[in-house]
TrEMBL record:
This is Cysteine desulfurase. Belongs to the class-V pyridoxal-phosphate-dependent aminotransferase family. NifS/IscS subfamily. It comes from Desulfocurvibacter africanus subsp. africanus str. Walvis Bay. It catalyses: (sulfur carrier)-H + L-cysteine = (sulfur carrier)-SH + L-alanine. Its EC number is 2.8.1.7. GO terms for biological process: amino acid metabolic process.
Length: 414
């Protein structure tokens, strides 16, 4: 078998945890019996199935405990995307006479594209702007909420910039005006404390694979009393809120992962944050013409988005890959497009920087030695690429013209 001795395992420095995370060994261990011996259907009358049902209940209790809510307020879904879609679907279906939605320009596609679909269907949408640090202006939010607003949807923390939004204040505004509030908390859970007793929100989405559970499992919190409209129509599972036989092993894994996430908040905000800061200082202090994308203060403790003038993020990723270093670039697609991501564009990151953006996202498994490898190698990579950059200072104008032309072509084929 290929997954045998340690030397056969991929040797990577994995700094792409906002994209996905490794499954925690504790999570896997808890899941395994439900992928082998305990395969009963949780809805069956026999005790063999009941054993699985019992573990699903325990998982629901664990998720609820980690969020400080009632287990009955948790619906298991297939992913963060389904949770976001379901929340928006529920909110707009509950108030069909309300035809206005408030959201931001920097949402994850799970919200962004669902709201775009609603916009095509005739909803009017207020797309809230962000400043250069990716921050929202609370006054803009207040002004945007109207009598016919069906839902306000604002992510808790941005996956690219790491900027944290003032969801408590936004939730309070919504409550005051009687408008449902949804937050995409996929990047917040496990990184900053989430307490639903103190957060006035009505729907909250989370995803397993961003917190060391497997891919393909998510959860949606629906505050008691909020109208719910199933997205997946079928059996009576999830108390009629989501048809389909439960993804038992993954639900059980998510329960464990949520327990670990809650217990790890302290480590995340001390040790992991210190490693992120070490990375940041090691790069910003050494590489000229580099800047940080994101709020310098209110930022996820594990995230560093950093932009280097005149070079391509993709080229840096390829060279980092030779050292087994995994990170992300700030581009929207991997097809060689020159279009920076919608988040960096919304932040107004200067053109010559936006293409040279890299995102490093750390986890509880990140070590100091790994960070030091990046701090040692990246300055050399940047220097090497700049030496051969078509965007070098002399040919800046020409390079920009070429890139603008490429973007225009790209847009016309969207
Ligand atoms: C990853 C992510 C999602 C989508 O979660 P999936 O489980 O991959 O569908 C939604 N929102 C944010 C902020 C994310 O980072």
């Amino acid at each position: 078998m290929s997954h045998g001795p340690a030397q056969d395992k991929p040797q990577v420095i994995y700094l792409d945890n906002n994209a996905t995370t490794r499954v925690a060994p504790e999570v896997l261990e808890e899941m395994l019996p439900f992928l082998s011996d305990y395969y009963g259907n949780p809805s069956s009358m026999h005790s063999f199935g009941g054993k699985v049902g019992g573990k699903i209940n325990q998982a629901r209790e664990r998720v609820a405990a980690a969020l400080s809510c009632d287990p009955r307020e948790i619906v298991f879904t297939s992913c963060g995307t389904e949770s976001d879609n379901t929340a928006l679907h529920s909110a707009v279906s509950a108030r069909p006479d309300k035809r206005h939605i408030v959201t931001t320009r920097v949402e994850h596609p799970a919200v962004l594209n669902y709201v775009k679909l609603l916009e095509q269907q005739g909803y009017s949408v207020t797309w809230l702007p962000v400043d250069k640090h990716g921050r929202l202006d609370l006054e803009h939010v207040r002004e945007a909420i109207r009598a016919d607003t069906a839902v306000v949807s604002v992510m808790w923390a941005n996956n690219e910039s790491g900027t944290i939004f003032p969801v408590r204040e936004i939730g309070a505004m919504c409550r005051e005006k009687g408008v449902p509030f949804h937050t995409d908390a996929v990047q917040a859970v496990g990184k900053i404390p989430v307490n639903l007793k103190e957060l006035p929100c009505d729907y909250l989405a989370l995803s397993g694979h961003k917190i060391h559970a497997p891919k393909g499992i998510g959860a949606l919190y629906v505050r008691k009393g909020m109208l719910f409209k199933p997205f997946m129509i079928g059996g009576h599972q999830e108390r009629g809120r989501r048809g389909g036989t439960e993804n038992a092993a993954s639900i059980i894994g998510l329960g464990k992962a949520m327990e670990l996430a809650a217990a790890g908040i302290q480590d995340e905000n001390t040790r992991v944050k210190a490693l992120r800061d070490r990375l940041e200082k090691g790069l910003i202090g050494v590489i000229p013409e580099a800047l940080i994308n994101g709020d310098p203060v209110n930022r996820l403790p594990n995230t560093l988005s950093i932009a280097f003038k005149y070079i391509e993020g993709e080229a840096m990723l390829l060279l980092l890959d030779q050292f087994g270093i995994c990170a992300s670039s700030g581009s929207a697609c991997t097809s060689g497009s020159l279009e920076p991501s919608h988040v960096l564009r919304a932040m107004g990151v200067p053109f010559t920087y936006a293409h040279g953006s890299l995102r490093f996202s750390l986890s509880r498994y990140t070590t100091e030695a790994e960070i030091d490898t990046v701090v040692r190698e990246l300055p050399k990579i940047v220097a090497r690429l700049r030496a051969m950059s078509p965007f070098s200072a002399d040919s800046e104008t020409e390079g920009q013209h070429k890139a603008v032309a490429a973007c225009a072509v790209e847009r016309s084929t969207e």
